[in-house]
Amino acid sequence: MGDAGLNRKIATFDVNRPGLAFSGFFRNFPYERIQIIGMSEYLYLENLSYDNQVKVLYKIFSHETAVCCILTRGLKPNSAMIKAFSGLDVSLLKTELGTSLFIGDLIYYLYEKLAPSTKIHGVMTSIYDLGVLIIGKSAIGKSECALELLKRGHKLVADDVVAVKRHSERALSGSGLKTMKHLIEVRGIGIINAKDIFGIRSILDKAYIELVVKLETWELKKEYERLGVNEYYSELLGVKIPEVTIPVGPGRNLAVLIETASLNQRLKNSGCFTAKDLSYKLKKEINNEYNKS
C-alpha cells in the first residue's frame, strides 16, 4: 500500500515501535524513523475503536518526516490501517520475520547503507590480520609495496582508491571500488589482477582500518621518530587511527618495515608497548642510581 511513499528518504538507521504513541503519548516521538508494528502493538491497536485506530495512525504517518510502516510476523493490515494508509503518501509494508530478528537485521543493513563514508588515495592491505591503510604522494611506491606484501603472503583489499566507511565512533573499514576490485596498477607493467596472479587467499573485500602508514620522501634535515615513545594519530571521518610515518629512501625495504610496524601495533593493541616499557625501565634505573649516590 502507498507505493508513492517508496520515494521517501530514510535518514537514520534507528527504528521505532510506536506502542506508546498508540496509547496517546507523543512527546519526543521520532516520526523520522521507520515504524515497526509487532504483535504487541498490533493487538493493542486492535483494542482501540475503529475511529481511534484511524486517528492515531493518521497522526503518526501524516507527519512530513514519516518514512514508512512495517508489519512483522506476517501480520495483515486491518481495516483501520487500510483506511489510514489509503489517504497517506507513506508505504505500509510487511515481513514474515519475527520482530526482534527483523529489527536486528534492518538496523545492521541501515547502518551499513547510511554510515558516513569517503574515498582516499592509497592502498588498503591486511597484514597479519591487521588492517593497514598505506598513504602517501603519487608515485612514492605504495602499489609496489602492496605487491611485495602480497608476495610475502599478506592480503590486498584495495589499490589506488580506498572507500572508507565509519561503522561506529571508533571503527572504520576500507574496501575497493567495485570496478577496481583486486586490481593493482604497477608503473612499467600496467594493471594486474591480484586474485588471478596470487590466488583467492591473497585478497579481501573489506578490512577494518587499525593502522595508517604514511610514506614520505626522506628529508635529511627532518627528524624522524627514533624511539617510538610518542604516539601519532590520523583522523578519518572523526575517528582517530594510530599512524606511523616511514621515510622512503634508497635501500629501504618498505614491505619489511610496514610488516614490522603492523606487528608492533598488534603488540600495542594487546597491551605491550616496547618503547614505553624501555623508557620506564631506564627511568627506574636512573632513579635507583640517584638514590644510591
What features would you describe in this structure?
- This protein is of the alpha/beta class.
- The protein folds into two domains: 3-113, 3-Layer(aba) Sandwich (Udp-n-acetylmuramoylalanyl-d-glutamate--2,6- Diaminopimelate Ligase, Chain: A, domain 1); 115-277, Rossmann fold.
- It contains nine helices and 14 strands.
- Strands 11-8-7-5-6-12-14-13 form an eight-stranded mixed beta sheet. The protein has a four-stranded parallel beta sheet with strand order 1-2-3-4. Strands 9-10 form a two-stranded antiparallel ribbon.
- α4 links the parallel β3 and β4 (91-94).
- The model has no long low-confidence stretch (mean pLDDT 92).
TL;DR of this structure?
The chain has 293 residues and is α/β, with parallel strands linked by helices. 34% of the residues lie in helices and 28% in strands.
* Architecture (CATH level 2) name of the largest domain: 3-Layer(aba) Sandwich
User: How many domains would you count in the coordinates?
Assistant: 2
**CATH top level label of the largest domain:** Alpha Beta
Order of strands, widest sheet: 11-8-7-5-6-12-14-13
Alpha-carbon Rg, integer:
28 Å
Question: What is the secondary structure topology, with strand pairs?
Answer:
Layout: E1 15-16, H1 19-22, E2 34-37, H2 39-47, H3 50-61, E3 68-71, H4 79-86, E4 91-94, H5 99-114, E5 117-127, E6 130-136, H6 142-151, E7 155-166, E8 172-176, E9 183-186, E10 190-193, H7 194-198, E11 206-208, E12 211-217, E13 232-236, E14 239-248, H8 254-269, H9 274-292
Parallel strand pairs: 1-2, 2-3, 3-4, 6-12, 12-14
Antiparallel strand pairs: 5-6, 5-7, 7-8, 8-11, 9-10, 13-14
